[in-house]
User: What shape does this take?
Amino acid sequence: MQEYLVKPLSNIAQVGLDKLEGTSCDLNESTSKPDGVLVRSTKLSSDDLTDNLKAISRAGAGVNNIPVEECTEKGIVVFNTPGANANAVKELVLAGLMLSSRNIYASIDFVNELTDKSEMSELEPFLESNKKQFKGNELSGSTLGVVGLGAIGSKVARMGVALDMEVIGFDPALSVEAAWKLPSQVKPAATLEELFRVSEYISIHIPALPSTEKIINKDLFKFSNNLSLLNFARHEVVNTQDVLNFIDKGNLRNFITDFPTPELIKRANDKKDVILLPHIGASTAQAEENCAVMAVNQLTEFLQTGNIINSVNFPDVRLNRTTDYRISIINKNVPAMIGQIATELGELNLNIAEMTNVSKGDIAYNLIDIENEVSEESINKLQGIENVIDVRLIG
Ligand code: MLT
Assistant: This one.
């Protein structure tokens, strides 16, 4: 059986790494030629895309720390773990909603300053006479807007319904499957503008992509009044300077984010209308374990069988193995490739038992079970077909 080297480039929960035991994938922290890489938030560059690398598995949802486009060009499959940490993020959003509605942060600071009140008889009346400045609002009955209704956003929407909030969601890419899972109380917004007009709280759950960069900005804030904005997605999706300007104008009441920037930290020190957390949305024991197990399982499945589940740049593929000789072929998604591959296999006298061909964007992926033994020379011949990116014999 073929052996594969798997290198962790971030701290990955042990329970996930334990899943490598008994597989043909060996953990190797020092190899310079891994077949697969496991990563959490470590930022990868071109230098990490070494010659042998076949796949990168991200223990988490966001892949903005991985050069995905370059991976696709090189035929490297990038996996993520959608949903594995969604509950952890949802629970922190709940904390964010509470922090924004009940002045908790300022209240705690206020109490912690009272070290000069050494007697209860002095402290208690002081607290009672000062607490009115921290009066908050109940979430129940107010409107929660959710931007992005994927694994995390849909859980946040459901939570809003459970809190008796009016929930409105916006997701132009909402899948039919995801839509079915949403409670009927979640109303769809036709546009982001509509969502910003009607919401008192907005929670953002979209990925950081070139198309979403600073998408949450002044053009939307101008429609809001006294809005609490929560960002547990990525800092790139929000225009931070616009947030600060519109807090000053009163359109935004506060901003609670898991993604601090230097300008936000400065503001948070001056006033309490910006509340910052250090990217701890997915930092729970349960989420770290879920993500690690899912990331490792997807990577080992791919290395050992060629099957692909939850890739961000390759299509999902599952072919039950029917022969001892399996090859995978990654090619550019251009016409006449299947014909060329089948012709070359015929010329090499290799008989196809089962084959699947699927594509996603610019990439196509073929898994082919062959009835007779496949030589290294045959692999090289297939690799020579124009527009073929990679051919792998999966032992
Ligand atoms: C995610 O993208 O799911 C989180 O950022 C994961 C993490 O905190 O590592």
In short: Residues 258 and 280 are 7 Å apart (CA to CA). The radius of gyration is 26 Å.
